[in-house]
Design a protein that fits this description.
This protein has 117 residues and is of the alpha/beta class. It has a single domain, classed as Rossmann fold (3-Layer(aba) Sandwich), CATH 3.40.50.2300. The protein has a 5-stranded parallel sheet, sandwiched between helices. Helix 2 packs parallel to helix 3.
Length: 117
């Protein structure tokens, strides 16, 4: 189980990024945030996250595309899609380890982060 790790949160909404950062830091994680897929790729190269939490709809590219780029350089990084939309039946076709429906209550997201090894 991931006790303390590096987490990169990518969301187009600044208040969601702030909320996720605060909640995950309170759980003891080191957290960076990004507002675009390009930022995700750049930060992955320098921050080396254990987990990337991606909104599916980012302004410059899809979260799915950004997640595939992350996995292309850091296979060990876990990907969680965090979105309002319905996921495919099997999120692994997107290259994801998990999918969490976006909600102001972050308990489910934090639970999934804790469950990843």
């Amino acid at each position: 189980m991931l006790e303390v790790g590096r987490i990169l949160v990518a969301d187009s909404e600044p208040h969601i990024r702030l909320l996720c950062r605060e909640e995950l830091q309170d759980d003891g994680h080191e957290v960076q945030v990004a507002g675009t897929g390009g930022d995700v790729v750049r930060l992955t190269d320098s921050f080396h996250p254990d987990v990337v939490i991606l909104e599916v709809l980012l302004p410059d590219m899809s979260g799915v595309e950004a997640g595939r780029m992350v996995k292309g350089t850091r296979r060990e990084t876990r990907i969680i899609f965090y979105s309002h939309g319905l996921p495919p039946r099997d999120v692994t076709i997107w290259g994801a380890d998990a999918y969490v429906f976006k909600s102001p209550d972050l308990d489910r997201l934090k639970e999934v982060v804790r469950s990843l090894a």
